[in-house]
# Entry
Amino acid sequence: MNVDIQIRSAKDSDIAAITGIYAYHVLHGTGSFEIDPPDADEMVRRRADIVSRGLPYLVAESGNIVIGYAYATLYRTRVAYRFTLEDSVYVHYNHTGRGIGEALLAELIKACRVWGGRQLVAVIGDSENTASVRVHEKLGFQHAGVLRGVGFKFDRWIDTMFMQLPL
# Structure
């Protein structure tokens, strides 16, 4: 990593930066299957839901500027899944390829273990998202399957890849 970053828990004051980072990925990438970027109020609601469950929601910052974020949610809401979590990691487009996603995910994994998670699942939008696949592999995730053509975005059918890490 060639950027000096600090990873910490997200705060309310980070929402504008988080909203901007996510909006870019929604509008330009296939890592999210959303079509329209949510506004800041919706991102506040989503973050509040996550942290109310005691789950981690982290940001990476450099020079006091948020350049990435990551969080864990419940994989599914049914009670039998209560120890299985799903990760999400997004990095500002000007800061990709510098190890920020890996650093965020590594800290997220630690926080999920502390929370008491048993499995961490990555649901990677687009099986061609090699950067996300590689960072998950590097941190010990194993391939768990591909759902072919389950999303439709940018006028094409997109796969979803599942990866899994025992915690």
